[in-house]
């Protein structure tokens, strides 16, 4: 295991990183997350089946109520951070720097925001193209966020989870741990591909899966070049904030057609 005071080697090259987990240790962290997440996701889907139904979840029906969305995001974020803290950090006597929470040059914050804007724009274009070529795709593209359907407290909670907590949890796990661990034991290009696929699949809904994989390449570039997960978080937070604003304005019919998400 790499000592805590040894600085990981972050360079954008086809080689490998020097991470703090052995292959078996990292596999234990990953399997712990998968087991807990699958169990909790099964429970969540069972809840959806017996309340609003899968049609609503897949976009062919009423929007999901805020309490289901809040529970879904809270469970995912808690699972990600819980596994990282308990298994990846505490079990191996590490600290939060080991998952990339380190200082970085301020320029990467600006670049992260730029990437988020580019990514959000490209995602909107991609979604519109998919609906244009495959009209039935509009059901998948419909927003799951019932902005305005709940109380003010529910809306604030949903915004906090969507814009702040979920991006932090996902970046720490998928970039700070998963990618770093994979790139320690396999070539960086392979770690980029596999971790991006896993990040996308964790979003379940097809359009979100595709967009998440697409955004992952931008975010991993930030991680590799800055050596910190904070620019990744900034990019993710900005991207989600843009999505929330567009979603709220779309529900209120306050957007021009070319900016309105499909669905």
Describe the structure.
The protein has 263 residues and is mainly alpha-helical. Helix content is 68%, strand content 0%. It has 9 helices and no strands. It has helices at 23-49, 54-57, 66-90, 107-133, 138-141, 152-185, 188-201, 206-226, 230-251. Helix 1 packs antiparallel against helix 3 (66-90) and helix 3 (66-90) packs parallel to helix 6 (152-185). It is globular and about 50 Å long. The N and C termini lie far apart (49 Å). The model is unreliable at 1-13 (pLDDT under 50).
Number of strands: 0
Which stretches are low in confidence, meaning pLDDT under 50 for 5 or more residues running?
Answer: 1-13
Radius of gyration: 19 Å
Determine the fraction of residues in helical runs and give it as a percent range. 55-70%
Distance between the termini: 49 Å
Strand content: under 5%
The H-and-E topology, N to C, reads as HHHHHHHHH
Main beta sheet: none
> Would you tell me the structural class of the helices and strands?
mainly alpha
Average pLDDT number:
82
Shape: globular
> Counting H and I runs of at least 4 residues, what is the number of helices?
9
């Amino acid at each position: 295991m790499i000592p805590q005071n040894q600085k990981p080697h972050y360079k954008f090259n086809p080689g490998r990183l020097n991470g703090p987990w052995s292959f078996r240790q990292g596999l234990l962290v990953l399997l712990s997350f998968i087991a807990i997440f699958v169990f909790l996701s099964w429970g969540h889907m069972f809840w959806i089946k017996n309340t609003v139904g899968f049609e609503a979840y897949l976009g062919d029906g009423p929007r999901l109520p805020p309490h289901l969305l809040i529970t879904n995001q809270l469970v995912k974020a808690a699972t990600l951070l819980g596994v990282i803290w308990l298994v990846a950090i505490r079990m191996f006597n590490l600290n939060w720097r080991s998952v990339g929470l380190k200082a970085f040059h301020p320029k990467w914050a600006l670049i992260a925001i730029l990437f988020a804007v580019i990514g959000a724009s490209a995602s909107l274009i991609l979604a519109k193209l998919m609906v244009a070529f495959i009209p039935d795709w509009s059901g998948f593209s419909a927003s799951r966020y019932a902005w305005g359907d709940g109380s003010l407290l529910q809306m604030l909670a949903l915004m906090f989870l969507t814009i702040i907590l979920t991006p932090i949890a996902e970046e720490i796990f998928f970039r700070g741990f998963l990618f770093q661990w994979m790139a320690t034991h396999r070539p960086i290009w392979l770690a980029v591909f596999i971790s991006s696929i896993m990040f996308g699949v964790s979003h379940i809904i097809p359009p979100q899966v595709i967009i998440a994989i697409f955004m992952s390449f931008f975010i991993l570039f930030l991680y590799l070049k800055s050596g910190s997960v904070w620019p990744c978080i900034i990019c993710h937070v900005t991207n989600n904030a843009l999505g929330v604003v567009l979603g709220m304005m779309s529900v209120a019919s306050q957007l021009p057609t070319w900016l309105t998400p499909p669905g």
